[in-house]
Amino acid sequence: MVEDVVRQLGHLSLGTRLKRIGETLQAQTQGLLAAHGFEQPAAWFPLLAALDRLGALSVGELSQAVGVSQPVITRSLRGLEDEGLVESQAAQEDRRVRRVALSAKGRGLVQRSRQQAWPAIEAAVAQACAGLQGDLLTQLAALEDALAHEPLLQRVQE
Predict the structure, then answer these.
(1) What is the per-residue pLDDT across 38-69, written as a single tens digit (0 to 9) for each?
(2) Which pLDDT score, from 0 to 100, does residue 59 have?
(3) What torsion, rounded to 10 degrees, do the Cα atoms 141, 41, 59, 14 define?
(4) Are residues 55 and 32 in the same domain?
(5) For 104-151, how does the pLDDT look when each residue is reduced to its tens digit (9 = 90+)?
(6) What is the pLDDT of residue 95?
(7) Would 64 be classed as within a structural domain?
(8) To pair with 130 at 20 to 30 A between CA atoms, which of 16, 120, 121, 151?
(9) Separation CA 104–CA 131 (nearest Å)
(10) Number of domains comprising the chain
């Protein structure tokens, strides 16, 4: 087996390690969503949740609400609009600013996911994180090991 260099480098590669864990969680969340009948990309759900919680937002506000760059938000919004999950229109106070809101279809999707998938995802991730001890690097190693040993979907099915 090849040595996990990123893990061995410790704090030196912390950004790469966090990104790797994030990608693992995102991929496993996608599998969990699919198991619950949701085919939309997992990356869309934080945007949908922000719009549900905060109401109509500009692209910049949505970027701040979920902590993702504006170009990423813009690309995601194209897909959300194509699927009919969000609607956008120019803001009354400044016609150059586009405000985005959930459509009726988007509100329905959020409602269904809130009832069917989000609790399972929350519980599975909490279970994977339960019992983490030690410094940050030790906790990250334990989380990576937990996700590799028992993916989120398997945790939900038990």
Answers:
(1) 999 999 999 999 999 999 999 999 999 999 99
(2) 93
(3) 10
(4) no
(5) 999 999 999 999 999 999 999 999 999 899 999 999 999 999 999 999
(6) 72
(7) yes
(8) 16
(9) 40
(10) 2
In whole angstroms, what is the distance from residue 142 CA to residue 82 CA? 39
- Tokens standing for 83? 């699927």
* DSSP 3-state of 29: helix
Q: What are phi and psi of 55, to 5 degrees?
A: 85, -165
Q: Which domain holds residue 10?
A: 1-38+117-158
DSSP 3-state percent helix, strand, coil across the chain (nearest 5): 70, 10, 25
Q: Whole-prediction pTM value?
A: 0.87
- What is d(CA 59, CA 69) in angstroms, rounded to the nearest whole number? 10
Q: In angstroms, rounded to a whole number, what is the distance separating the alpha carbons of residues 76 and 49? A: 14
